Amino acid sequence: MSTESATGSDEAAVTVTPEAADEAISLLEGESMDTDVAGLRLFVQQGGCAGLSYGMRFDGEPEDDDTVVEQHGLRVFVDPASMNYIGGATLDYEGGLQGAGFNVENPNASSSCGCGESFRT
Asked: Residues of the signal sequence (predicted)?
């Protein structure tokens, strides 16, 4: 398992904004999950109108081959196949009247669909 932290390297595999970390930690705690062990799994799957889409779920612990990024108190787990597509991405959270939610800003995406839910590399 590869582990990176906000202070451990100049460029993290995935960057987490403070807003995203705060929201995810709040949701983890709402599920009574131990934030010292559990985390947010960020992954890429086939689907969406552009070919690939992002997925997120909470996991109790990382898999052996996951990259684990720890920033702002949040642990993010990324499997090796997904890291090929989202390495260098930023996970953000936006709230507001238009709808709240997590957003992945991915420098590897060459195009995305109109709704922003799927992408192509």
From this structure: none
Asked if 76 and 66 count as a contact pair (C-beta separation under 8 A), the reply is no
| Residue 119 forms part of a structural domain | no
pTM over 0.85: no
Mean pLDDT by 10 residues, the chain (121 residues): 47 89 97 96 80 90 96 97 92 84 85 52 50
- Count of structural domains, the chain: 1
Find the domain containing 79 and state its range: 2-114
